[in-house]
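Researcher: Next entry in the queue.
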Amino acid sequence: MLQFLRQHAVSLLQHYGTRPLLWNTNGTAQANWADGYIPLLTTYTKEDSEAKGLRRIAAPKAPRPAVHFSALEMVQQNRFSLFWGERGSGKTSFALDLALNLAGEQLRHNEYNLKNFIRPIPRNDQNLVQVESWNLPPTWPVYAPVHPQDHWEQFYARIEHLLEHDNCLLIVDGLENFFNPDEVLNELEKLYLEQDGLRLVILANRFLCQGLHVPFTLAQFSIMELNAAQQRALSADTPVQKGQEARPNLVVAANAVGKLADGEATSLAVADIWLDNAAPLSVRKELQVVITAYWQGNRQALDQLPQTLQNFFRSDFAQTTLFPVIAAYALLDMEDDARLATLGSDLSLWRRAIPFLVTLLQKRQQTIVPLTRGLLSMDDPSATGLRYGANLVLQHLQNDLSIQQLCRSALLNFLQHDASTTPTKNEVAHMLAALGDQRNFDDLICIPAGYATLGSDTHVNSSPVHTVYVKAFKIGRFPVTNSQYALFVQQTAHTWPAFNTLLPAQANIPAADVTWYDAQAYCAWLTQRWRKEGRISASEVVRLPTEPEWEWAARGPQPDYAGKVCYPWGPQWRSDLCNSSELGLNKPTSVGLSAAGRSLFGVEDMAGQIWEWTSTLWGKDMAHPDYTYPYCNDGREDLNAPATIRRVLRGGCFSSPSLKANCSYRGSLEPNGFWRGNGFRIAVA
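Model: Structure for this entry, 685 residues:
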């Protein structure tokens, strides 16, 4: 067994150790992994880690810039992890850096070893630098790239003999290439559960893996683009400016080019310089034909290029950075109908050329309206054409009211179909927000009076299960959104940390970073406003729901399921119906994305998304409530209790697992505490 792992480690170093990672603009090699790798960060932050438990905030009002964990750190913290990233995000570079240095450590290699993992990383735009390192015992790496349309049996046959040792790390690079990724995830979970000493790392393109059913045992992380401090650390003259893409491949390409003479720092301008250096204009047409054929699956096409260019154009760097630009030039020479037919033939592939094609069309002063209308009308469950078409409307056709209305209708129609995945619908909803989401976020659901079942025997703080009579009331169909809360802030000058950073596309996500006192102030403001508008009577008030009201609205008449929690839609967990940690987004989504995930009363987003404030007191200890179950009239609804007494939060959030993102789990936080995973919804009574 050890012999096989040693042979694999030797092969890794021989095959990849000297392979170029960085290239010069003339197509010659510049640096390998040991010299050129840039450590990657994930979207997972220290604050997210703290919020996994019922943490205490020492200084709630103090600013807390996000401090991101690196991908290497997440591999060490989780024995079974999945990393999402687009083409060019650095997934394969990360995988090979990990594999080469682990292999080199085992073989006592001079260039590749664990010392390479000791490196400072700017953890945010503010340049907070922290060192990452490898803190686990040395382990044998098994690097396993996935071949296109691989079946699990074929893949496993290639690596089975390497996994018999009890100390190895399996790196599966390219989940999207499997014929059946869902089956593969299930098989990999079996390996994880059966072999205690095995650590697994899976790398995948989220766009190409939409709709996967990810096991709850699998920790999911998204790879970030390079932050501003990382870009500045590479070069003070980095031409990639804020607003441009900052994937590692593009930043590195821009650095190699240096400062552009005309100051145009677009990805297209950078790629053009590379192409001008690597391939003279006289062979550009030939290059377009060759690269397009290769891109569409003809692996022998590159053999037609001069030998000096073949290695460069076979590299991941060229294929992620230059191929989409070359494809855009090929599309530019087509008529509208042929162009749309080519795009539609494999939109998951050709989509990467669309932004460059648009720039080229505009440089020729040609209209992009036919392209936009064609994309908006493409019918596919992943909404690829719709999303790219909507981007064109938002970026280039802001004065065309007719196409804006066409786009808005297409986006809204897509959201009303439950067949698509939550991440896809979330992207569509963000675009709708940027255009103007006209859904009624003030909508109230009437909750009838009744005997509410509260609690669950699955957690001591939620026990015992009991019933409480709840009077009729109304509750917000959605959590309070950014657009609603921002109006309150504008009219009252109320302090809100998130206010100055909001983007139009975030208008329809739940308002977060909101204290209990902030929520109370919003309710008081809305009470006065709605009374003036005649929406509520003089005797009605807008307020936070009590804990029994919240659970009654979320759970409805569902009984207790012994030994199990229940969810708004019923007793069976479904990861596709809510935004919990199982979804892997690690951020709030737009509200109202899953009709099937509504409560039995029709209330939306009550599992996952954000922790929601209630009016009910918890106590001073974050782990053990003073106000225990059964719920009773013992002063726990005192609105004037001191700030040292925590209030109950309900519903879980985007980083909560299913055991917390449900109808019965009780969370808590100091009333002046806030973070990006807590908000609220209103009640009217």
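Model: The longest helix spans residues 516-533.
Researcher: Noted, moving on.
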